[in-house]
Amino acid sequence: MQLRRIRRFCIEQLFLKPYRSRALMPSRPSKSRLLRVLGPGLITGASDDDPSGIATYSQAGAQLGYAITWTMLFSYPLMVVIQEISARIGRTTGKGIAGNIRQHYPNWLLQAIVALLLVANILNIGADLGAMADASALLIGGPALLYVVTFGVLCGLLEIYMQYARYVSVLKWLTLALFAYFGTAMVVKIPWGEAARGFLVPTFSVEPAFWTMVVAIMGTTISPYLFFWQASQEAEDTQAEPRRKPLLKAPQQGPDAFERIRVDTYVGMAFSNAVALAIMITTAATLHTAGISDIESSSQAAEALRPVAGPFAFTLFTLGIVGTGLLAVPVLAGSAAYALGEARKWPIGLARKPRNAKAFYSAIAIATLIGILINFSPINPIKALYWSAVINGVVAVPVMAIMMLMAVDTKVMGGFAIPLAMRVIGWGATLIMAIAVAAMIVASWV
Description:
By secondary structure, the protein is mainly alpha-helical. The protein has a single domain (32-445), classed as Up-down Bundle (Amino acid/polyamine transporter I), CATH 1.20.1740.
C-alpha cells in the first residue's frame, strides 16, 4: 500500500504537476507554436494595410519614387511601441482603451474621442468598400455598387454570427491576402540598389508635396482604430480563454503575457510595414518611372499598373485590395463598436452571442450599413477618405497622450507600468504625430 502511494506521488510530480502548471500559465512562444501566438498584433498590423492605406502607399511610390520608402523604417519602432502599449493596457486591465478612459478620465473627453472615432471609422469603411468594389469591377466586370452591398453584408454577417475562435482564425487567414503585394514586387523589374538606398538613407525635400506625403504615411501607419482594436482584442482574449485573467488579478501571468504580446506585435507591425514597402517599391519601379503620379485610390493604382507592369501584376495587386478590405472592414466596425460599447457600459465582445450583446452587434451592423450607404450618396469617396485621415490624425494625438499617461499610472496598470525605453519612444511617437497633424492642418490652409 505504501509503495503504491509513493509510485502515485512520483507520477504526479513528474507528469501531472508540470502539465497542470502549464495549463494555468500562458505558454511561452516557440517556433512550433508561433502561429498560435500571433493574434491581435498580426491582425491589427495587417488591417493597417487596408485599401485606403494601399492608396496612400501607391500614391507615395508613384509621386516620389524610392525617396520616400525610408519612412517605413522610421515608423516601425513608433508603431511597435504604441501598439504594444495598447495591448499591455488591454491585457493588464481586462478593458479596452475606451473602458479605461471612462474609468479614469472626464466623461466629456471620452465622448468626444469616441464620437470622432466613429465618424472616422465609418468614413473609412465606406471608402474601403468602394475600393473593394472598384477592384472587383476591374477584375470581373459588373456594377460596382452591387459589390459594395455584397462585401458589406458579408463582412457584417461573418463578424456578427460566426463563432469567436473561428472568426479570429478567418481574420488570420485573410492576412495571407497581403502576400499578393510581395508577389507583385517580384514580377516587376526593380533596381534593388536604388531601392535599398531610398530605404536606408533618408532624403528630404523642401517641396510641400513631400511633407504632405510624409504626414499621410504617418497618419496611415499610426491610426486610433488600431489602438482600440488591439487593446479590446487582448481584453476579449482574456475573457474567452479560461486560464487567462487580467494581470491586475493574476500578476504571475505577466512575464509570459508580455512576451507573447511583444512577439505578436513585433511580427504584426513588421508584416504591415513590409507590405507597405512592397507597394511603394512596386509603384516606384513602374508608375513613377513611367511618369504616372496622379493616383487617388488603390483601384486607380491597379488600373494604372496594368499597361506598365502587365496583366499578372495588375491581377495580384487588385486581388490584394479585395482581400485586405475583407480584413480591414470588420476591424474598423469592430473597433468602433468596442469604443462605443465601453463608453455606454454595454455588454461587449465578439465572444458573446448576438442576443447577449444586442447593442454592441447593432453598432457593428449600423457602422457597416452607413459605410455601404456612403457609396450610394453624393459624397466623394476620395474626399471621405481625406476627412477620415484628418479626423484620425486629430484623434490620434490625444488618444496616444492618454495611453502614455495610463501606461505609467499605477492606478491603471498596478505593478505593470511600462519601462523607461517604451516611455521615451512612446512620447516621441506622440510628439511626432502632433507635429505631423499640425503640418497637415497648415498645409490644408496654405
